[in-house]
Write a structure and sequence with these properties.
Blueprint: E1 2-5, H1 12-21, E2 26-29, E3 40-43, H2 49-58, H3 62-70, E4 75-78, H4 80-83, E5 88-89, E6 104-108, E7 119-124, E8 126-127, E9 143-148, E10 150-154, E11 160-165, E12 169-176, E13 179-182, H5 190-203
Parallel strand pairs: 1-2, 1-3, 3-4, 4-13, 5-6
Antiparallel strand pairs: 6-10, 7-9, 8-11, 11-12, 12-13
Length: 204
């Protein structure tokens, strides 16, 4: 069973449907004890960093999520669920601490001529870690779907699995051990995204 952490994020249903489509047994979980027997877990997210962290805190899922990651079972963070893995965010003068699994913070795209913020739409992946299991079978230069105004700046560049160009290069996906995370939305990225989700289900 793959646990889909449900703290009220707007994309929970679409991630649920995409995981089911690629053959996963998925259960929405909104309490810490429901994570104990899961083979893998997914933290989705859209919206604000603080909203995500505060909701996880209210549902007593912050510590449970950290414990799950430490257990070595596969874990996937998506969009704000990716950003939440870092230490802090500049969004709206955020006062919420992130999960702190990765060093670094979440920053806003810098304004530039012709650059629209948020980034909404398709953009290219430049694969930095072709050995990343989530990217098995994904060609370099594949396009995926983004909706975001902020992006993490990892303190350790070795965790970056893919880079994307948008007013400068940013880390669009990361990987370390059992932990995978994407700024883009695999559930909205058609066959490329579904292939990544299939890869994740195989890991589980």
């Amino acid at each position: 069973m793959i646990a889909l952490i449900d703290y009220g994020a707007g994309n929970v249903h679409s991630v649920f449907k995409a995981l089911r489509f690629v053959g996963a047994s998925v259960e929405r979980v909104d309490r810490p004890e429901a994570l104990r027997d899961a083979a893998a877990a997914v933290l989705p997210g859209v919206g604000a960093f603080d909203d995500c962290l505060n909701a996880l805190q209210r549902q007593e899922l912050l510590g449970a999520t950290r414990d799950f990651i430490r257990s070595g079972r596969p874990f996937l963070g998506i969009c704000v669920g990716y950003q939440a893995l870092f230490e802090a965010s500049d969004e709206f003068n955020s006062c919420a601490a992130g999960l702190g699994v990765f060093g670094g913070r979440v920053v806003r795209f810098r304004p530039a001529p012709g650059l629209k913020i948020p980034q909404i739409g398709w953009n290219r992946l430049d694969i930095a870690r072709p050995d990343c299991p989530l990217l098995a079978g994904i060609p370099d230069g594949s396009h995926v779907y983004f909706v975001h105004s902020f992006r993490p700046e990892p303190a350790d560049p070795s965790i970056v699995a893919t880079w994307t160009e948008y007013g400068g290069r940013f880390a669009s996906a990361v990987w370390r051990d059992n932990l995978y995370a994407t700024q883009f939305h695999p559930e909205k990225s058609q066959e490329v995204g579904l292939r990544m989700l299939r890869n994740f289900v195989r890991l589980a």
